[in-house]
Write a structure and sequence with these properties.
single chain, alpha+beta, Dipeptide-binding Protein, domain 1, Dipeptide-binding Protein, domain 3, 11-stranded mixed sheet, 17 helices
C-alpha cells in the first residue's frame, strides 16, 4: 500500500511539474451544439480538435494520417479495413473498440438531424472483424471517404454516454481526446480539463483550456494585446498591423481552405418566393453588380482572394480559368429588365454579427443599389443564423465555409439536392449526377473533368455566389511555443506550451 501511495504521489508531482495552468483561446463565434453528429460550426471543430480525437487526421500537406486508427487498407475499391489503436480510453473510462466505431458511424447514418449522413452515405455495412478491426463495406467506390473521416464523421464518442444522454449528448460530450469537457456557459465560454488517460497525454501541457466566444474581432485582438487571451484563432486583416507591431505577440499567416459566399433561397419554404430566388437572371444581375476586388480591398485590405468557386488555388480541383469577371452595372440592369422585374428589387441578406461580415454586407448593399437592388441586412448571432438557414428563414444568407481537404467536402454537402448545408434547397438533376459521379473515380483527372462540367451549371444558375477565399491568420503570445498552423485552420494543442 505504501509503495502504491508513493507511486501515486510521484505521478502527481510529475504531472503537476509538467502542467502549465490554463490556456485561453478566443473564438470568432459561439459554437453550436457540441455533438459531432449534429454540429455544423467551424468553431465547434476548433473545440473538437482538443476534445475529440478522430479515426484519421490531416498533416501539414493535407495527407490523411492515422489518429485513433492504427492503419488502414483498401481490400478492394468497396472494402475499407481499419485497424484501431489498443490504448484509447473515452473520458468516461470506457475503452474504444470496433463496436464503438460501428456505433458512431451508424449514429451518423441514422440519427434524425444528422449533419454527417451526406459525408459517409457511401457506407452500406459495417463489419466487426475483431475487437480492434472494423471493415466498411461501400455501396460503390468513394474517393473522399477517408478525408471525411478526418473530420466530425471520424470523431469517436462513448456509446455508453451517448445512449444515456440521447439528444442531450451535446450538452456534455464524452470523446477520447487529450482534454475532456468540463463546463459551458452559452455565449461565453467552454472549459476543458486535461485527460490524464489519453494515450498521448505527455505531449499536452495545460491543465485546462478555456475557449471564449468573442464575435467582435476588435475585442478579440484587444484582449490578446491585453494578455487575457493567449491565442486567437482568427485575426482579421484590420487588426494585422496592431498584432505585428506588438513585440509580445506573434501573427502566423497561411493559405486556408475556407470561402465565404451568399446562399440564395431557391426552394426552401415561403422565403424562396422572391425575384432573386425564382429567376437566375436576377442572381446573375446581383453578381454583376459586385466588384469582388474592390470588396476585398475595402474590407480585408486586399489580403483575401476574390473567387467564384469553392476550392482554393492549392486544390487540384481549382480551375484557374474560373475568375471573377469585371463589374458591369449596365448589364446587370439589362438582366433585371429581361427578367421582367421592377427596380428597386428587394433582397434581404442574413449576415452574422461579426463586424467584418457586416462590413462586407454593407459594401455589397451599396454596390448592388447602383444596379437596381434594395438590400436590407438582417444581422443574427451565428448559431441562430445557422438554424434560420436550415429552416429556410432567409432570402439570401452571407455565410462562410471552413473548407475541406477534398473538393467533395466543399461541394456535395452544399450544392447537391440532398446536401445537409444546401440551405436554399437548389436542385438540379444534372448537377446532382455530376457530384455523385465525381465521388467514384480515384483518378484526379477523371474527377476534375466531372467538376468542370458541374461548374458550367453552377455558374449559370448561381445558387451560391462565391465571394472570397480567406487566409488563416492566428494571433498568439510570442512566449507560446510549438504552434503549427495547418491549412484547415484548426488549432491543435499537441506540443504547445509557454516558454519557461
Amino acid at each position: 500500500m505504501r509503495r502504491l501511495l508513493l507511486a501515486a504521489c510521484a505521478l502527481f508531482a510529475a504531472t503537476a511539474a509538467g502542467a502549465q495552468g490554463t490556456l485561453n483561446i478566443g473564438l470568432r463565434q459561439d459554437p453550436d451544439i457540441l455533438d459531432p453528429t449534429l454540429g455544423s460550426s467551424f468553431v465547434g471543430r476548433v473545440v473538437y480538435a482538443s476534445m475529440c480525437d478522430k479515426l484519421f487526421d490531416l498533416d501539414a500537406r493535407l495527407n490523411v494520417v492515422p489518429q485513433l486508427a492504427r492503419s488502414y487498407d483498401y481490400e478492394s475499391p468497396t472494402r475499407l479495413l481499419i485497424r484501431l489503436r489498443d490504448d484509447v480510453v473515452f473520458h468516461d473510462g470506457e475503452r474504444m473498440d470496433a463496436e464503438a466505431v460501428r456505433y458512431k458511424l451508424n449514429r451518423d447514418l441514422t440519427i434524425h438531424g444528422s449533419m454527417r449522413v451526406g459525408e459517409i452515405n457511401a457506407i452500406q455495412a459495417i463489419e466487426i472483424v475483431d475487437p480492434l478491426t472494423v471493415r466498411l463495406i461501400l455501396k460503390e467506390p468513394n474517393a473522399p471517404l477517408l478525408v471525411a473521416l478526418t473530420d466530425r464523421a471520424g470523431i469517436m464518442i462513448s456509446p455508453k454516454a451517448a445512449e444515456a444522454a440521447g439528444r442531450e449528448f451535446g450538452l456534455r460530450p464524452v470523446c477520447a481526446g487529450p482534454f475532456a469537457f468540463a463546463s459551458r456557459v452559452a455565449q461565453d465560454r467552454i472549459t476543458l480539463r486535461r485527460f490524464a488517460q489519453h494515450y498521448d497525454a505527455a505531449n499536452f501541457h495545460f491543465d485546462q483550456v478555456v475557449y471564449l466566444s468573442q464575435p467582435n474581432s476588435s475585442v478579440r485582438a484587444a484582449n490578446l494585446r491585453a494578455g487575457s487571451l493567449d491565442l486567437v484563432e482568427q485575426i482579421v486583416p484590420n487588426d494585422v498591423a496592431a498584432i505585428r507591431g506588438d513585440q509580445r505577440l506573434r501573427l502566423v499567416v497561411g493559405d486556408g481552405l475556407a470561402y465565404t459566399g451568399i446562399n440564395f433561397n431557391i426552394a426552401n419554404g415561403p422565403n424562396a418566393n422572391t425575384a432573386i430566388g425564382r429567376d437566375k437572371r436576377v442572381r446573375q444581375a446581383f453578381e454583376l453588380a459586385i466588384d469582388r476586388v474592390a470588396l476585398n480591398q475595402v474590407v480585408f485590405d486586399g489580403l483575401y482572394l476574390p473567387t467564384v468557386q469553392a476550392n482554393p488555388p492549392s486544390s487540384p480541383f481549382f480551375f484557374a480559368e474560373l475568375q471573377p469577371g469585371a463589374r458591369d452595372v449596365a448589364r446587370a440592369r439589362a438582366l433585371l429588365r429581361e427578367a421582367g422585374v421592377t427596380a428597386p428589387v428587394p433582397v434581404v441578406i442574413t449576415v452574422t454579427n461579426s463586424p467584418d461580415q457586416q462590413q462586407a454586407a454593407e459594401v455589397i448593399q451599396a454596390m448592388t443599389a447602383e444596379a437596381g437592388f434594395q438590400v436590407t441586412l438582417k444581422v443574427m448571432e451565428f448559431a441562430s443564423s445557422l438554424q434560420a438557414g436550415y429552416a429556410g428563414d432567409f432570402q439570401a444568407y452571407l455565410i462562410g465555409w471552413s473548407g475541406r481537404a477534398d473538393a467533395d467536402g466543399n461541394m456535395w454537402q452544399l450544392l447537391h439536392s440532398r446536401g445537409t448545408f444546401n440551405y436554399g434547397r437548389w436542385s438540379n438533376p444534372d448537377a446532382d449526377a455530376l457530384l455523385d459521379a465525381a465521388r467514384r473515380p480515384t483518378d484526379p483527372a477523371e474527377r476534375r473533368a466531372l467538376y468542370a462540367r458541374f461548374w458550367q451549371i453552377q455558374r449559370d444558375e448561381l445558387p451560391l455566389l462565391y465571394l472570397w477565399t480567406a487566409k488563416n491568420m492566428v494571433g498568439l503570445k510570442a512566449s507560446l511555443q510549438g504552434f503549427e498552423l495547418m491549412p484547415d485552420g484548426l488549432v491543435r494543442l499537441r506540443g504547445l506550451r509557454f516558454a519557461r
